[in-house]
C-alpha cells in the first residue's frame, strides 16, 4: 500500500526535478569508486558486505558462526554431532503491509511451532521487523504495538511540492527515527550481541545509491564490536533500509579514508532487492556441515496483480509504471530465493498476503488497515499457517503444508 503511494510521489519528483536550479542539501564527497569496499563506517570491521561482490568474507563469517554455535553448545553440555536442524527467515519490504509479517510471527508463536532462527534477514519494513523476529517470541508484544498503533505522523512529515526541487525527498522521516530509537535501544543491541555469540546471524539490506550496489549489514558483529557508536549505526541502518527513494529522505553514513572524510548515501534495500536469504554465489549446501536446513520467506505483499484503472496523466502513468516494476521485482526475488533454496537442498516455505484479504486501505499507515492485516496474519498462523512450498505458478495443488 505505502510503496505504491510512495512511488507516485517519486514520479512527481522526477517530473519537476528538471526545474531545479537552486540550492540543494549539501553532503560530504562520495567515497571514490576504487575505495568503495575499503570504507568502514565508524571503523567497525566485518560490519557489512556487498552482496554483488566477493563473498569470501561472508563465507568466513559463516564458518565462524558455526564455531561460535559449537562452542555455545559445548558450554551448555549439548551434543555436537549431528548438529541440529537450522531455520532461516527472510522478511521482505512492503511498507504498512509489514503488519502481515508482524501478525504472522505472533500467531506462529501462539501456535507453539515457531522455531529459533539461525539466520534472519530483513529489507525495508522487513528490516524493522527482523530484530524482533531474531530475538524471539518475547518481543512479539513490542512488534504488535509498533504495527497496530502506527500512524502516518509517526513515520514522516510531508515537506510539500517544493521539496521535489530543493530537498532530498518529499518527506522527512525524523518521526520514524524517534520510533526506531524507542525500540532499537541498548537492551536490544545487547540481546543481539548475546545471540551472535551463540552463532546466530542478523542481516539487514540497504542500497548504496552512490555505488548502485546492495549492502548487507552484519548487525550481530556491529552489536558485539564494543564501538561506542554501534547503537547509532544500528539505528541508521534500520532507517536507511526503509528510506523509499524520492519519497523518504536518504541516510548518509560518515566514513573516513586516509584522513579524508566522505559520506555514503543509502536508501531502501528494496531499490535492488525486496528480500534476500544470502547471495546466490554462496551454496550453503556445500559451504557448511551436513544438516537439515529450512528457509521461511515472508513476503509482505500480495503476489497476484493489483488491478486499478490508470488516469491518462503523466504523473499517474509514471507512478503506476514504477509501482508495477517494484511489484514485479518482488515476485522475481521470491523466485530467486526459491531456486537458490532448491539448488542448495534447503526446504523452502513461503508466506504472502492472500487474495482472501480484502480490507481496503484508507490512507498511508492507516491503523484500521494495519490492525486488520495484522489480525489476518495472526489468525492464519495461530491456526497453523499452510506454508507454500513454491511460488504461485510453480506449486502443485497439494504442496502447501503446515510446518
From TrEMBL:
<dbReference type="InterPro" id="IPR002641">
    <property type="entry name" value="PNPLA_dom"/>
</dbReference>
<feature type="short sequence motif" description="GXGXXG">
    <location>
        <begin position="93"/>
        <end position="98"/>
    </location>
</feature>
<feature type="active site" description="Proton acceptor">
    <location>
        <position position="268"/>
    </location>
</feature>
<feature type="short sequence motif" description="GXSXG">
    <location>
        <begin position="122"/>
        <end position="126"/>
    </location>
</feature>
<keyword id="KW-0378">Hydrolase</keyword>
<dbReference type="InterPro" id="IPR016035">
    <property type="entry name" value="Acyl_Trfase/lysoPLipase"/>
</dbReference>
<keyword id="KW-0443">Lipid metabolism</keyword>
<feature type="domain" description="PNPLA">
    <location>
        <begin position="89"/>
        <end position="281"/>
    </location>
</feature>
<dbReference type="GO" id="GO:0016042">
    <property type="term" value="P:lipid catabolic process"/>
</dbReference>
<protein>
    <submittedName>
        <fullName>Patatin family protein</fullName>
    </submittedName>
</protein>
<keyword id="KW-0442">Lipid degradation</keyword>
<feature type="active site" description="Nucleophile">
    <location>
        <position position="124"/>
    </location>
</feature>
<dbReference type="GO" id="GO:0016787">
    <property type="term" value="F:hydrolase activity"/>
</dbReference>
<dbReference type="Pfam" id="PF01734">
    <property type="entry name" value="Patatin"/>
</dbReference>
<feature type="short sequence motif" description="DGA/G">
    <location>
        <begin position="268"/>
        <end position="270"/>
    </location>
</feature>
Amino acid at each position: 500500500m505505502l510503496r505504491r503511494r510512495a512511488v507516485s510521489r517519486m514520479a512527481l519528483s522526477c517530473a519537476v526535478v528538471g526545474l531545479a536550479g537552486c540550492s540543494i542539501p549539501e553532503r560530504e564527497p562520495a567515497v571514490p569508486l576504487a575505495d568503495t569496499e575499503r570504507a568502514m563506517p565508524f571503523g567497525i570491521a566485518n560490519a557489512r558486505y556487498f552482496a554483488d561482490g566477493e563473498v569470501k568474507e561472508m563465507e568466513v563469517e559463516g564458518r565462524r558462526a558455526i564455531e561460535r554455535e559449537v562452542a555455545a553448545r559445548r558450554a551448555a553440555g549439548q551434543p555436537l554431532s549431528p548438529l541440529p536442524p537450522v531455520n532461516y527467515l527472510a522478511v521482505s519490504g512492503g511498507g504498512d503491509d509489514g503488519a502481515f509479517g508482524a501478525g504472522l510471527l505472533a500467531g506462529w508463536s501462539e501456535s507453539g511451532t515457531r522455531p529459533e532462527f539461525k539466520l534472519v534477514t530483513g529489507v525495508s519494513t522487513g528490516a524493522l521487523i527482523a530484530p524482533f523476529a531474531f530475538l524471539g517470541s518475547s518481543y512479539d508484544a513490542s512488534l504488535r504495538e509498533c504495527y497496530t498503533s502506527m500512524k502516518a505522523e509517526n513515520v514522516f512529515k510531508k515537506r510539500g511540492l517544493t521539496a521535489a526541487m530543493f530537498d532530498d525527498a518529499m518527506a522527512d522521516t525524523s518521526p520514524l527515527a524517534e520510533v526506531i530509537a524507542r525500540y532499537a535501544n541498548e537492551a536490544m543491541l545487547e540481546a543481539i550481541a548475546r545471540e551472535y555469540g551463540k552463532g546466530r546471524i542478523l542481516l539487514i539490506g540497504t542500497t548504496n545509491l552512490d555505488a548502485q550496489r546492495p549492502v548487507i549489514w552484519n548487525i550481530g558483529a556491529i552489536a558485539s564490536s564494543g564501538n561506542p557508536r554501534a547503537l547509532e549505526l544500528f539505528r541508521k541502518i534500520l532507517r536507511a533500509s526503509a528510506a523509499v527513494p524520492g519519497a523518504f529522505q536518504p541516510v548518509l553514513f560518515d566514513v573516513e579514508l586516509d584522513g579524508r572524510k566522505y559520506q555514503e548515501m543509502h536508501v531502501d534495500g528494496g531499490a535492488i532487492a525486496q528480500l534476500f536469504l544470502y547471495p546466490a554465489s554462496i551454496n550453503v549446501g556445500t559451504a557448511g556441515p551436513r544438516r537439515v536446513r529450512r528457509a521461511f520467506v515472508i513476503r509482505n505483499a500480495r503476489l497476484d496483480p493489483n488491478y486499478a484503472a490508470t488516469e491518462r496523466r503523466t504523473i499517474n502513468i509514471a507512478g503506476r509504471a514504477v509501482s508495477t516494476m517494484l511489484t514485479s521485482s518482488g515476485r522475481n526475488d521470491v523466485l530467486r530465493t526459491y531456486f537458490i533454496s532448491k539448488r542448495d537442498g534447503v526446504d523452502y516455505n513461503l508466506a504472502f498476503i492472500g487474495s482472501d484479504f480484502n480490507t481496503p486501505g484508507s490512507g498511508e499507515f492507516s491503523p484500521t488497515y494495519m490492525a486488520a492485516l495484522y489480525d489476518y496474519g495472526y489468525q492464519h498462523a495461530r491456526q497453523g499457517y499452510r506454508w507454500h512450498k513454491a511460488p504461485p505458478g510453480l506449486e502443485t495443488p497439494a504442496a502447501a503444508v503446515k510446518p
